[in-house]
Automatic annotation (TrEMBL):
This is 2-oxoglutarate dehydrogenase complex component E1. Signal peptide: none annotated. NCBIfam families: 2oxo_dh_E1, PRK09404.1, PRK12270.1. Belongs to the alpha-ketoglutarate dehydrogenase family.
Length: 998
């Protein structure tokens, strides 16, 4: 391909039509072309003499279709395009029409004109692609935002670089036609090269650096170009400047006030990035104007108190009282430090005079863990309010630190959820507070990518880098980001290049490790001082007006400080980020403390069973192996639970990798037509005429991000059953942060009820160490049961115990009990996380079946299933009482039968492990008073349930199970079977009982 064609290709912005085909200031394609009908008076040589732009227009027209130009021009351009040996010269001669007319004008003259134009077009593109590398982003002026001081060779930073394009200093005052892929002309179609470079530098190399040319969509690229290249577009009215100044005053003086009053307290202040507050308010104002009435935010600890005070508008006295060490302890749970707390507030947006709801999610110091939680809650709000495109009711804003944004994998996982149908929130605005340092780690040691924001490129999100000491540039970028989200419903990133005036916290000494940076910071003038001086100098405000605004906010803070003395920290519910006002009483308590039976009417059971074994769509070609046999197995028990809840108006959402079919091919909730591509059927959505929707969705191969997302989804409403299923139970270990920081302790720290359900396939079946154990010991270790204390509750012991626990851990052994526990999760008058160790081999085990009578009206979940065989008829004759849970029960009953010990050994199943069913276990122990107590489990002794299961004051006299081990399971089938035989022998070795009796 010739250089003409190669360079012309560069100008075809992202694969769309060439610039000259569009309307506006360029030549529109129409016939007849003015040059198509021109005569010999308009020969190539004469055209070169008259107008180089004329030649350029014809050249691009010719590239599309050779018939667009006169035959003389067709021959001329073909000759220019060809490259070959001298022997081919004859084929490149002009047509007879041109011979004799171009003698005085070499084709090289025309070629130079076209090449120069193409060079200028390439130069424009170079600035669009790489201008951000030389943008003035660091407020301190000492660091390169992209960690590299190298200046791209194709950017004209000095005159001598013109030679890179074959241009010279003498060309600076030549005018060149501008391509359609730029807006620097501001309506002009030609500009002198000197002005082209000046405008490009103003657009891309000032206090804003724009990364967007990797986006593979012409419309989106053009939209961004127009927003940043149009001359004079970054203008603000005097009223807007005064508003910006007032917001900057509030942001700065708030931090100053806290520093004066509590100089020795950690607060993770915003000094060095005070512009974050007006930035967020600009995003919210622009979004509110576009129709958004609800915004949910997540952020790390830096600046949280300022955001709560000046964006969410939490009462200052409630914030200040958190600093008083004399205040009473929290009324519920352990509480959390003040810079982790969240807030929910509905107020009037003064910029638009519209109601807006703002929610800031509480989160721990695991900085990015809140990202998917925010997305899940936003998705749920959109879903329940019918906002299919995120245009009205909900938008999410995520704030990040630079080190965490680049270093935490959950950021990548969250981005990859952003455009999946069942997970998209239709665009999130990400704001990175780029301190240009981690805690103490230099960014050159903390990331391999040029920018901390490079992870966003994986989803083609535009990235706007901006110098945080230029408030107007920041405001403009925030306005554009909000408009982008509204226009395209895609993620966008704002990178606020700033600094930390103090260390990681106010008690830290940063000079230990960053002496040069912090010497410069000590000399750095505050952004408020710089901006106020500018506005006063420009006559936008007077010095008196500025001082009055400062004094006004200082007075507000002082008055709030005085009233905070009367506040009580015990009112932790002031900090609730996800209230359920229609679910709890005004005091935040359950409206009742009982749970109705979870059984079902026979008609409901029959209807659900019939739907589960049929296809509601006509002419749908189902796979023959999916025809159900009507037995109440595990899959049908789940179907009964989901279907009955849908009938009652409860939304059911099941999410996780492969959940539509189930990892073990047991579920099949999405049927695929075997003859028609992409034709599917979800029978669960065809159960009832006015049912709630059922959402079953395969997720990306992510545990951390997806579990966090589902947790957030479950926060939005108590009237939904939200479940996350792991492919194998042990896969939850990559989501451990969500489990530890949010699910286990969320209510204690943040008074946050949540009914999320975790389905964790578990069972030792010789499949190796990674596909066996869901690590039940970890969940039990974090349960707040006291094994040495028998709880005393008035009223309904079961419900009271559930209300007091932090989560519920079960290992169901029957399909009916699985159905009941799922229904109980919704029928309870409060919400607790539910951890279910689900089976693998039991999914199809012939003995793991239930009778439909077990689901009949009046039945309910069995926390403990006593022995129902011959041993139960004569409990005094039972010599050994074995407690167990889960799959091992079926192996024990098989071995008991083999040894003919049905009358001698009773086997009791704990279906609910936490909270521990003390009352039922005590009853079984007292019933078999003379029996030897044994705890049997298939897990290793140092794992599983053994250390948790203190049987009501009588620790099991014997343990039957695998020996302690470092790995959760063996990878050798023979070893697995030998271990099984060994602990089965131990479980039924009655010699110890005989010795004890003797």
């Amino acid at each position: 391909m010739s250089q003409f064609r190669a360079l012309a290709g560069v100008l075809r912005g992202g694969g769309g039509s060439p610039w000259w085909r569009a309307g506006g200031g360029t030549l529109a394609r129409c016939r007849p072309h003015p040059w198509r009908t021109c005569s010999s008076e308009a020969t190539p040589s004469q055209a070169v003499t008259s107008s180089s732009n004329y030649v350029e227009d014809m050249y691009f027209a010719w590239l599309e279709d050779h018939n667009n130009v006169h035959e003389s021009w067709d021959t001329f351009f073909q000759n220019m395009e060809k490259s070959g040996t001298p022997d081919e010269e004859a084929e490149r001669r002009p047509s007879p029409l041109l011979q004799g007319r171009v003698a005085s004008h070499s084709p090289n003259v025309t070629q130079k004109v076209v090449e120069d134009h193409l060079a200028v077009h390439t130069l424009i593109r170079a600035y669009q692609i790489r201008g951000h590398h030389v943008a003035q982003l660091d407020p301190l002026g000492i660091l390169d935002a992209d960690l590299d001081s190298f200046v791209p060779s194709d950017l004209i930073t000095t005159i001598d670089k013109l030679g890179f394009y074959g241009l010279h200093e003498s060309d600076l005052d030549r005018s060149f036609r501008l391509p359609h892929t730029t807006f620097i002309g501001g309506g002009e179609t030609t500009l002198p090269l000197r002005e082209v470079i000046r405008r490009l530098e103003a657009s891309y190399c000032g206090h804003v650096g724009v990364e967007f040319m990797f986006i593979n969509n012409v419309e989106q690229c053009q939209w961004i170009r127009q927003k940043f290249e149009t001359p004079g577009i970054m203008r603000f009215t005097n009223a807007e400047k005064r508003t910006l100044l007032a917001r900057l005053i509030r942001s700065t003086r708030f931090e100053d006030f806290l520093a004066r009053k509590w100089s020795s307290e950690k607060r993770f202040g915003l000094e060095g990035c005070e512009v974050l507050i007006p930035a967020l308010k600009t995003i919210i104002d622009s979004s509110s104007a576009a129709g958004i009435d609800s915004v949910i935010m997540g952020m790390p600890h830096r600046g949280r108190l300022n955001v709560l005070a000046n964006v969410i508008r939490k009462d200052l006295n409630q914030i200040f009282c958190q600093f008083d060490p004399k205040l009473e302890a929290a009324d519920e749970g352990s509480g959390d430090v003040k810079y982790h707390l969240g807030m929910y507030h509905e107020r009037i947006n003064r910029g638009t005079d519209k109601n807006i709801t703002l929610s800031l999610m509480a989160n721990p110091s695991h900085l990015e863990a809140v990202d998917p939680v925010v997305q899940g809650k936003a998705k749920a709000e959109q879903f329940y309010r019918g906002d299919a495109f995120g245009k009205k009711v909900m938008m999410s804003i995520l704030m990040h630190g630079d080190a965490a944004f680049a270093g935490q994998g959950v950021v990548y996982e969250t981005f990859h959820l952003s455009e999946l149908p069942s997970y998209t929130t239709h665009g999130t605005i990400h704001v990175v507070v780029n301190n240009q340092i981690g805690f103490t780690t230099d960014p050159r040691m903390a990331r391999s990518s040029p920018y901390p924001t490079d992870v966003a490129r994986v989803v083609n999100a535009p990235i706007f880098h901006v110098n945080a000491d230029d408030p107007e540039a920041v405001m403009y970028v925030c306005r554009v980001a909000a408009e982008w989200r509204n226009a395209f419903n895609k993620d966008v990133v704002i990178d606020l290049a700033c600094y930390r005036r103090f260390g990681h916290n106010e008690m830290d000494e940063p000079l230990f490790t960053q002496p040069l940076m912090y010497k410069q910071i000590r000399r750095q003038e505050h952004v408020l001082k710089k901006y106020s001086d500018k506005l006063i100098g420009d006559g936008v405000v007077t010095l008196q007006e500025y001082e009055e605004e400062v004094a006004k906010y200082d007075k507000i803070c002082e008055e709030a400080y005085g009233s905070s003395k009367d506040e009580k920290i015990s009112q932790i519910r002031h900090w609730l980020d996800s209230p359920w006002p229609k679910f709890f009483t005004a005091e935040g308590e359950p409206k009742t403390m009982s749970c109705p039976p979870t059984g079902l009417d026979e008609e409901v059971l029959q209807h659900i069973g019939q739907t589960a074994s049929s296809v509601p769509l006509e002419d749908f070609n189902i796979h023959p192996d999916l025809v159900r046999n009507g037995q109440l197995d595990w899959a049908l028990g789940e179907y009964m639970a989901f279907g009955s809840l849908l009938k009652d108006g409860v939304h059911v959402r099941l999410s996780g990798q492969d959940v539509e079919r189930g990892t073990f091919s047991h579920r099949h909730h999405v049927l695929h037509d075997q003859e028609v591509d992409k034709r599917i059927c979800v029978p669960m959505n065809h159960l009832w005429a006015d049912q709630a929707p059922y959402t079953v969705c395969n997720s990306s191969l992510s545990e951390y991000g997806v579990l966090g997302f589902e947790l957030g989804f479950a926060m939005a409403s108590p009237n939904a059953l939200v479940l996350w299923e792991a492919q194998f139970g042990d896969f939850h270990n990559t989501a451990q942060c969500i489990i530890d920081q949010f699910i286990s302790s969320g209510q204690a720290k943040w008074v946050r009820h949540n009914g999320i359900v975790l389905l964790l396939p578990h069972g030792m079946e010789g499949m190796g160490p990674e596909h066996s154990s869901a690590r039940p010991e970890r969940f039990l270790q974090m349960s707040k049961d006291d094994p040495d204390h028998f709880p005393e509750f008035a009223g309904d012991f079961e419900v009271q115990q559930l209300y007091e626990c932090n989560w519920i851990v079960v290992n169901c052994s029957t399909p009916a009990n699985y159905c009941h526990v799922l229904r109980r999760q919704i029928l309870l008058p409060f919400r607790k996380p539910l951890i279910i160790f689900t089976p693998k081999s039991l999914l199809r085990h012939t003995d793991a079946r239930s009778s439909f009578n077990d689901l009949a009206k009046g039945t309910k979940f069995k926390r403990l299933i006593p022995d129902e065989g011959p041993a139960s008829q004569n409990p005094d004759g039972v010599r050994r009482l074995i407690f167990c849970t889960g799959k091992v029960y079926y192996e024990l009953t098989k071995e008991r039968k083999r040894q003919n010990l049905e009358k001698d050994v009773a086997i009791v199943r704990l279906e609910q492990i936490s909270p521990f069913p003390f009352d039922l276990v005590r009853a079984e122990v007292e019933k078999h008073e003379s029996a030897e107590l044994v705890w049997c489990q298939e897990e290793h002794k140092n794992t599983g349930y053994y250390n948790y299961s203190r049987l009501v004051g009588r620790f099991p006299e014997r343990y039957a199970g695998r020996d302690p081990a470092a790995a959760p399971a063996t990878g050798n089938k023979s070893t697995h079977l030998n271990e099984l035989k060994k602990f089965m022998d131990a479980a039924f070795d009655l010699s110890a009982f005989q010795e004890r009796k003797a």
